[in-house]
């Protein structure tokens, strides 16, 4: 994996958890808006909207650079629209990055899978 691909995956990973948190907070704010006089939906909606747009931009870049299959790309997109999906995406992307580092080190040392 080249440095640009690793960077694209890292950016997507780093924005996925905050996007998931903002989604959950937005849901809580929506409930509070309807049950109390507290209305933080406009602010949280804007914060979540910015994070979601960043996630989609970084997702498209990662898809392009990592040469994901359509199924893998669809999985990461679906995870972005589920309330806690960003946490799962972050964990899966972290594992993918760790595996890429291990594979790169093995290639560098000349280790071949048997």
What is the strand and helix layout of this fold?
Blueprint: H1 3-35, H2 41-66, H3 70-81, H4 85-109
Helix pairs in contact: 1-2, 1-4, 2-3, 3-4
Q: What key attributes describe this structure?
A:
114 residues, mainly alpha, 84% helix
What would you say this structure looks like, in words?
This protein has 114 residues and is mainly α. The chain has one domain (3-109). Helix content is 84%, strand content 0%. The protein has 4 helices and no strands. It has helices at 3-35, 41-66, 70-81, 85-109. The protein is elongated and about 65 Å long. The relative contact order is 0.17.
Q: Can I get a quick summary?
A:
With 114 residues, the protein is mostly helical.
How many domains, in number, for the residues? 1
Fraction in helix: over 70%
Given as residue ranges, the uncertain stretches (5+ residues, pLDDT < 50) are none
**Main pleated-sheet profile:** none
Structural class: mainly alpha
Shape: elongated
How confident is the prediction overall: mean pLDDT? 90
CA gyration radius, whole angstroms: 17 Å
Strand content: under 5%
Q: How many helix segments? A: 4
């Amino acid at each position: 994996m080249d440095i640009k691909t690793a960077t694209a995956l890292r950016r997507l990973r780093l924005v996925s958890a905050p996007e998931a948190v903002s989604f959950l907070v937005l849901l809580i704010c929506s409930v509070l808006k309807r049950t109390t006089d507290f209305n933080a939906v406009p602010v949280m909606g804007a914060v979540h909207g910015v994070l979601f747009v960043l996630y989609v931009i970084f997702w498209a870049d990662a898809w392009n650079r990592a040469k994901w299959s359509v199924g893998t790309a669809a999985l990461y997109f679906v995870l972005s629209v589920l309330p806690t999906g960003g946490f799962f995406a972050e964990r899966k992307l972290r594992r993918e990055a760790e595996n890429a580092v291990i594979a790169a080190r093995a290639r560098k040392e000349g280790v071949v899978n048997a």
